[in-house]
Amino acid sequence: MGLKMPKAYSNKLKRDVTIEEATKNNIKDELYCSNEKCRIPLTFVGNSKRKNRPVSAYFRRRGKVEHIEKCGYNTLGQLNIAARDSDDALVSLNDKKYSLRLNLISKAIKNSDSSKKKESTDVDVDNTKQPTKNYISSGKISAYLSTMKKIMQIKSKVEDESELKKLIEIQFNSENIRWSDFYFEFDDYEKCFSKLMKNKINYPLCIEGEIKNFEKSNENFSYYSIKLKLKFLGENEDGKNKYASVSILFNDENIYENLKKEFESGKKHVAFCSNMRAKRVITSSEFLNITGVVYNTKQIYMY
Prior knowledge:
By secondary structure, this protein is of the alpha+beta class. The protein contains 7 helices and 20 strands.
């Protein structure tokens, strides 16, 4: 199990090469892990598409040879590091299974929420805006949310999209949560909306997607926001175009501006973890709106 690699060691050139160099010069043979203590054989994977979305070129393991545990591209090793620093939000069950305690992530988000002054808007964006009675220290909040950010980071880099489903067991209080009911990709937006509307989700979710644009707050809406690319769902029963829409809201201008700088530097995709709300809006088109609020930079990861 491993992560996508942006560089590899070329045995012919006796040095590391980047994806860009390998693509430009057709360097595809005698490639190995750039970690000199690992050096497992690699394969060059060119630009491709997954679910109609472009996937940039990368290096990956050849066959089933595993990276050494301490290699930065070993998935289990990275999860072990995340678990070590998680303050029990991510716990190792055995050598190939981890338990994510989502109730701790939920408490961390609610505590981050309660530390911010509530601002009124014309929509109810979040049902968690009540100060929690179960106060947790800032250190634990940081550890819990850092764990969630690390998982989103690993998810964006895994070679096999289904890998984390096998490695992480998700628990919310006494309930076991399926990965597919916790982490939603672009093609899953409608499913996410449906579950939220039916009140089948009362825990934080992760959503990922491609960024469409940034919007500043204004006199009509006091939140800053990131809009993700719309998912076209066809026509509704009235013949109107139907879309799934995801928005990330911020009441902290600094967080918003820093993320905008990351976007301008070339990071066009994002994953975030939040308590989500859903609302159907029908105008000239039908929109299935999913909204989450980010209070802490550790709730969001851009790549």
